[in-house]
Amino acid sequence: MGPIKRFICFAVIFENIHLGLTERSVSQNDESGYCLKLENRVSALGNVMKNLQDEKIMTEKKMDYIRQEIITSKSQYEVKFNILEKELKTTKEQLSNANDIVTKLENYMRLNGLKIDEIEDISGLGVAEDTAEKEKRMLLPSTSTSSVAFSASLINHQENLSVYQKIRFDYVITNVGSGYNPVTGVFKATVPGLYFFTVVIMSHATEDIETQIVKNGIQIVNTYSGDSTTWNQGSQSVVLQLTAGDNVYIQIQNNKGVNDGNIRIFGQSWSSFSGFLIANTQ
Question: Which of 101, 171, 228, 245 is 20 to 30 A away from residue 195, measured at CA?
Fold first, then answer.
């Protein structure tokens, strides 16, 4: 028996003697019995403390897991919020571009002798024109053969693109006049006139990409999409004068400072290409 345990045993015996619980001298067997009981109690307390320590470790692990879940959820909500915020910004920019286009169209109509109050509501709710002269001044002809409009989005992510490569928007939403080819990504004008085109490109998270609207192989306007922390949409619009047979498409810009490595575009309908005939000049 070690000196510490012996001391503890003597202390217990002394306490029992002091309280009058024992009236005779404690024998060696009694001493051993007390010490054994005390050792058992100490061992039991040790087991309890070990169990408590294990529970403490498990609780800390659970707390760490919950804390990480909270951080992850917060990050996901922040990403979604940033995407919605950028969508709102893009929508505002498109609205501003549309207002500019309306102003340009009004100027175009004035220069060509067209009157805004004589344009028929093509939905059929407007007042019907009663003279052939008024029909000639309509912005959109009443015949369906002159209606041209298309809209296509990117369903699948496009990977490993190269500079000057055409972007093929594979999901056709609208294709009145069949001018857009989803296999090549090229719109071919079948009717000469004034056309409006717009493109929206979403980059992958923390990446950037530059594209451009091209007419007959000639760069017209550029689009930048990118963000250092999340996804980002870039948009661009343009009004073009086309003749029958002219081609318009979207391609990767030749800028190695931005478009390098695995050049890719985010799909899932976050990227799109649209256009329509504003006025037939035939």
Answer: 171
pTM confidence score:
0.49
CB 83 within 8 A of CB 231: yes
Whether residue 191 lies inside any domain: the answer is yes
151 pLDDT above the threshold of 90? yes
CA Rg value for the chain: 40
Cα-based distances in Å from 225 to 6, 69, 105, 252:
80, 31, 28, 12
Q: Is 17 exposed, middle or buried (0-12, 13-18, 19+ CB in 10 A)?
A: middle
Flag whether 189 is in a domain. Answer: yes
* Residue of 249, 266, 225, 268 whose CA lies nearest to 166: 249
Domain extent at residue 200: 147-282
120 belongs to a structural domain: no
| Any domain includes 164 | yes
pLDDT tens figures, 2-15: 555 555 555 555 55
User: Domain boundary residue among 38, 73, 108?
Assistant: 73
